[in-house]
Amino acid sequence: MLRRGAGFLEALRREPLPVGSRLILMLGPSMDYPGGMTEVVRLYSKKRVFEVWPLRFVSTYDRRGLITQLRTWLPALCTVLMLLARRRVALVHVHSAAHGSFWRKSAICAIAYLFRTPYVFHLHSGKFSVFYRRDCSGFAQAWVRRTLRNAARVIVLSRHWRDEVHDMEPTARVTIIGNPVNAPVSLPPLRHPARTVLFLNWLTEEKGVHDLVRAMPQILRSVPQARFVLAGTGDVLAGTRDVESIRHLIKSLSIEHVVSLPGWVDGEQKNEFLRKADVFVLPSYFEGLSIGLLEAMACGAPVVATAVGGTPDVIENRVNGLLVEPAQPDALAQAIVTMLTDDALRTRLREAAHRDVCARYSLDSAVGSLESLYRELGIHVDSISRRAHSKAS
Question: What's the pTM value of the predicted model, to 2 decimals?
């Protein structure tokens, strides 16, 4: 029995078929799930990456709730196992955050490694180093390091995260590919007076939204006309508790009349909020590389953000935005007031931000970097895909 099992495993690990006849298997949350990780995959799709390359996307997560998660995860696992067993996969590309997302994706990576199929570990989470150092036991840390070490490439979003990954696993083969963003060619006119402050993210403590609310009374004393839009939803595991805590804090400060909570916005509705924003605020405690931040820069909304994670790799204080330290509502308020009341500064910062995001984070640039990585790993577009792409173009 043991010999038969060993023979089966050895058969699974034998030399694969030629790369050109097989798939790139990409795994991540459902395309309907909110968040930056999903937006990245959507933008890849918009750029026809799935048409040009032999890519197949498999959803591994949809919504909270054990039954819902199992209904998504188990079919995904079966699909991966079936395709690997049939030797139909040239490369596995997983999009991962921390905690449960990491455990699901690391299991897929381990299975791919067993089948001698290379995998790319695409890291999105701004909390990954905290997850590794604070929440993982010694065994779990060893598993994290093994997952990073065995990856054909670890994709990170910024120089900061390259250094963080190398601190965890010095031998990891790391490639930086920033999140992509669609940038308009020109900026809309600057509005006078500036009064709309936009937060566009998860409504959680670690995103700093409570600090923003606590800063509002101080902002209103200097700019009474200021209005605040907190667009987003609570953490999927917390249900409505996050939003309820924000509403309670707003009510306790008697500022309900200046705050709107439209919920999670996407697509054209999100673009409309960004176009109408006079200041975009991201007061996070942890950050990978925020899609919302890049979109604000692209749309001409001047940015006030905290100097955490990958944000300082994008924003240089008083060059293309304003940076403050996290968990400092007074400093946050002062920066927002400065942005709202200094038109010359707003003009200079938003123009510099737009230039930078167009040069460094365009969709063409990000997709080009991804395609270069696939080629480095031995994946090539076959003639059928080329013909399909030429017809689509």
Answer: 0.88
